[in-house]
# Entry
Amino acid sequence: MNCPKGQLLYILGANDGDSPLVEFDLEVSEEWRAKTKTRLVHETCDVEYAIELKNPRPTRHLRFDHRYNWKCDGCDYIM
# Structure
């Protein structure tokens, strides 16, 4: 959205309060937004290219990326 301010919402599964949502205000710099946009555009192009080739190799792999590899734990296609 190219906006420097926003909110991060967490949905709590076990919560005794009134709302299952916890809100955090956040603000990011112009530089961070520009770097993130560039990275996302490149990753999107890689995915589009992989789809055209019908080959997942050009895309970023998450299994060994410690920031995201938890997403592979429950994947039916991990092997």
About this structure: The chain is about 30% helix and 20% strand. The chain has a mean pLDDT of 79.
